[in-house]
Amino acid sequence: MDERIRLRLDVSYDGTDFSGWAAQPARRTVAGVLTETLDLVLGTGTVTGLTVAGRTDAGVHATGQVCHLDLPATVWREHVGRLLRRLARLLPGDVRVRAMTEVPADFDARFSATFRRYEYRVTDAVWGAEPLRRRDTLAWPKPLDLAALNAAAAGLVGEHDFAAYCRRKENATTLREVTRLDWRRDPDGILVATVQADAFCQNMVRSLVGAMLVAGDGRRPVEWPAGLLTRRERSSEVTVAPAHGLALIEVGYPADPTEYARRADLTRRLRVPTEV
């Protein structure tokens, strides 16, 4: 039996026309398109075990997504010098594989990750989003106060039960540690939220953004988003921010490759398979 090797893929995509990452029957997804293209280049079934760091929802973008896959070592040696370029020619323009790197067999794109970092873009300009950025920037109808946004964000940093902000899944924990949550206003006037945590449950980032935005425009006090952390079920008061403003920017891994397996084991003990 041919030895198999593991590859790490660094992937970017415009999520507008995708029904999320995960393959779904009769739907266009990032994983589906990527698998179809790899099958075309390497042969159907040659690649196995495609695993992603974070299963993004429909409409969510990525500039720093990571996934891994396995394939025969002989196939990799045959295609190593030209596979990336062939994928660039055959993949649609809204998804790019930017790098393919051989990694140890115990690297797990999902469970070896130490953090995921997202950004959410919002404009409060009265004219709305610039046409060239309308696919990745939310137009907010009210003026937003940067100081209020950051005050609301501060109360959400740390380890908490984010049940109020998560879509509930059976037997899945909603305990998460948010290590960074802050807002900036770029020179072009765009407000950008940076959200980083060890992991996120479904809809968590967009729910946090939705709660902070109504604090930022003055409709809720800045203490309100943190006050919801006492809830033990999803809050109907929180509006999930639209998907198109959100992008996965970076996934972190241990600097020492020998730590991949230990990190994966730790994560598996803390998480259940239905979580991201």
How does the overall form come out from the CA principal axes? globular
Major beta-sheet overview = 10 strands, mixed
Return residue spans where pLDDT drops below 50 for at least 5 consecutive residues: 272-276
Secondary-structure element order, as H and E? EHEEHHEEEHEEEHHEH
Helical fraction = 10-25%
Determine the number of helices (DSSP H or I, runs of at least 4 residues).
7
Radius of gyration equals 20 Å
Molecular structure report:
It contains seven helices and ten strands. It has 276 residues and is α+β, with helices and mostly antiparallel strands. Strands 1, 2, 3, 4, 5, 6, 7, 8, 9 and 10 form a ten-stranded mixed β-sheet that branches. The radius of gyration is 20 Å and the shape is globular. The relative contact order is 0.18. Helix 4 (146-154) packs across helix 5.
Give the gist of this structure:
The chain has 7 helices and 10 strands. The chain is an alpha+beta fold and 276 residues long.
Jot down its keywords.
single chain, 276 residues, alpha+beta, ten-stranded mixed beta sheet, 7 helices, 10 strands, 24% helix, globular, disordered C terminus
Helix and strand topology:
Blueprint lengths: L3 E10 L16 H13 L5 E5 L8 E12 H7 L3 H8 L4 E9 L11 E9 L14 E2 L6 H9 L3 E4 L13 E11 L5 E7 L6 H13 L7 H4 L18 E7 L7 H11 L6
Parallel strand pairs: 3-10, 5-6
Antiparallel strand pairs: 1-3, 1-4, 2-3, 5-9, 5-10, 7-8, 8-9
